[in-house]
Amino acid sequence: MTRTALLLASPLLLAACQSPADPADRAPVFDGIAADETVYFTGNEPFWGGESGAGRLTYTTPENIEGSTFPVTRFAGNSGIGISGELDGQPFDMTVTRGNCSDTMSDTDYPFTATLRIGEEQRQGCAWTHRQPRTGLEQGQ
Length: 141
Prior knowledge:
Elements: H1 2-17, E1 39-43, E2 48-53, E3 56-61, E4 64-76, E5 80-87, E6 90-102, E7 108-118, E8 121-128, E9 135-136
């Protein structure tokens, strides 16, 4: 009897472990930045910035004003986008999420926050696109 009960319960237990079959039951994927948009980002203390679009990312610092350009993958998650690649042999992972952001060095406001991790170091910054621009004294791009 116990063996029969386990056999009958097995499909139910497996179904409970699987993700929902109906896409409507899944969390929505972030669509606040279109796949064809270039994302610009900046941060300070230490100063860093750059842009990412079309499968490439250019990362700049005061020591490397022209920047380092490398291939990246980009994906939309539940609350933002992730951009990942490798910079100088270190993992480079950045998340861009909706939220008011200020760089604390100017009167500029940004529509997105950027969290960057290079190797074991984490940095905080701001981001924008042409369709969702930064506003304030340092407008542009």
